[in-house]
Amino acid sequence: MFRFANPDYLYALLIIPALIGLFIVAMHIRKRRISEFGNPELLQQLMPGVSKSRGWIKSIILLIAITLMVFGLARPQFGSKLTEAKRKGIEIIIALDVSNSMLAQDIQPNRLDRAKQAISRLVDQLANDRIGLIVFAGDAYVQLPVTNDYSSAKMFLSSISPGMVPKQGTAIGSAINLAVNSFSPQSETSKVIVIISDGENHEDDPVTAAQRAYAEKGVVIHAIGIGSPKGAPIPFGTGNRDFLRDKDDNIVVTKLDEETLSKVAVSGGGKYLRASNAQIGLLPIFEEINRMERIEFKDKVFSEYDDQFQYLFGLALLLLIIEFFVLERKNKLIKRLNLFGESN
Fold first, then answer.
1. Which residues neighbour 330 within 8 Å (Cβ) at sequence distance 6 or greater?
2. Which of 7, 137, 216, 294 is the most exposed place for a label (fewest CB within 10 A)?
3. Is the confidence at residue 344, as pLDDT, over 50?
């Protein structure tokens, strides 16, 4: 298992293109100044000790050394020991509606962004539980398989957008079926699905899917309705300056379908909550989840990581020493060796 202990230092790699640009500019200025003195070919004969290639070689060596030092500062590590850890927790899969209607702004800043913020805060409170993410619109897709890697969960969460599911709609039933099949097959721990949607389902039968999941698999399903029953227009176009319209050029208004979501939650043995600008509802549902029985399960994790940065720093130091001894002028003592393939 490989990882960077300090990945933020990798942003320093952005200086490499800037250094390359500065070197090219410096070489261009140098060449122009030499041309001001006279014919470059004639001046070359008057300066037989000047090397054209060594300046480039020194710069390339220096850039490689800087790159190695940046990677060293990021502290690359390899997991050296895979151990079996015992945990007590449950498995939670959050099914998030990413249809265009989730862009409505009756929940600020909009339904989808507000839901993502709440999920991120929920992830921060998890300890030994596993979490997975499913996105759905007209179809459902696994965004993140069930895992206890909370950093990955937040990373995948940040990339969620309506454009990632090409087929529009709200297939809650498909999301439930996919979630049921996405739990760890050998795990006996409690399993929970949390659906976050505006509930405008026109694709399938989510109530039957919830009943089957709860009765046959013991999966508890909670639902959070996000939006308002009065509805709101769906921003559309650059800068969200226009709104989605139907074929008759009327503005489409998306309304929260509490009835469907409430039936799904009741059929799934869970609870339904309506989100508001003050509270999405994930934390009250998490309190409900915390009351569920947690069964001990085994999980394989990398428990020890070995730092590898010292090798990168050592190689960088060696390159800096080489760069120091590579002179821009030809050295008479090593001229006969022709190390850089230069003609006499």
1. 48, 49, 50, 51, 54, 342
2. 216
3. no
Place of tokens 């070689």: 57
Instruction: State the CB neighbour count (10 A cutoff) for residue 242.
Output: 13
Q: Is residue 199 pLDDT above 90, yes or no?
A: no
Parse the chain into domains and list their residue ranges.
2-78+306-337, 91-293
H or E stretch covering 225 = strand 220-225
Of 99-103, 154-158, 187-191, 195-199, the one with minimum mean pLDDT is: 187-191
Task: For 35-64, write each residue's pLDDT tens digit.
Answer: 766 566 665 655 555 666 777 888 899 999
Find the helix or strand (DSSP H, E) in which 180 lies: helix 172-182
H or E element at residue 261:
helix 258-267
The fourth-level CATH superfamily of domain 91-293 is: von Willebrand factor, type A domain (3.40.50.410)
CA 9 to CA 73: how far, in whole Å?
Answer: 6
What is the layout of strands, in order, in the sheet containing 269-274?
Answer: 140-147, 130-136, 91-97, 191-197, 220-225, 269-274
